[in-house]
What we know:
Metallo-beta-lactamase, Chain A, binds zinc ion, globular
Amino acid sequence: MLRxxxxxxxxxxxxxxxxxGSTRILIDCGFSLIETERRLQRLGCSANSLSAIxxxxxxxxxxxxxxxxxxxxxxxxxxxxxxxNAMRDRQFAQTQFINLKQKLTLGDLEITPFSVHHDAREPxxxxxxxxxxxxxxxxxxxxxxxxxxxxxDNVQGLMLECNYETELLMQGSYPYLLKQRVSGAYxxxxxxxxxxxLKKISIDRLQYLVGMxxxxxxxxxxxxxxxxxxxxxxESEGIKLxxxxxxxxxxxxx
Length: 254
Ligand SMILES: [Zn+2]
Ligand SMILES: [Zn+2]
């Protein structure tokens, strides 16, 4: 059985856990070593039990803690060549390059990377499957492509970015250029874009839908939640939000 959780999600740090059997992988690590250990503990895990770290891109909120965690626990790090070259700290216990055209197998998990539109060197996101169920992860993309939609079709679990509510971003305190960056084609997905994306994929098998990477300045949980509900055609117990402080507890896909 595949299950997943979040250590925390937002511009101050991101990390997600996905496991099946004895394989447990961390997607991104934007927290300090001590904070990562604390948050893992909260989810009943120790960093010793991790199999690998996958990195989506080099931005600090996803990558700042990767090097230290890898060295401390001798964890292999999987990332694209572009992300590796753009990382500040790239002293990993072991480095494995992700080819965006190739699936990779890590223990009981099959990982399908796909590229996204984000202002990083070679960013990607993932579909993770245990053969029975699959989880789609999509954050840090300013737009969705046909290729992205194809990958997310028919997933059982989806962790989907709901970064900002357009009105809050535009009326908010961010400088003009930053507003342009966030809302641009290589920035982040808005609540509205998440809603539109959901309308374009098949969600017949969807069990859990999790709003991710919510801005604490330009969004409100209620707005993101409403957009996700609209996207799937109504309220559902399977709709969750991952927060910056609390992340999200374990959820299993059957
Ligand atoms: Zn980013
Ligand atoms: Zn980010």
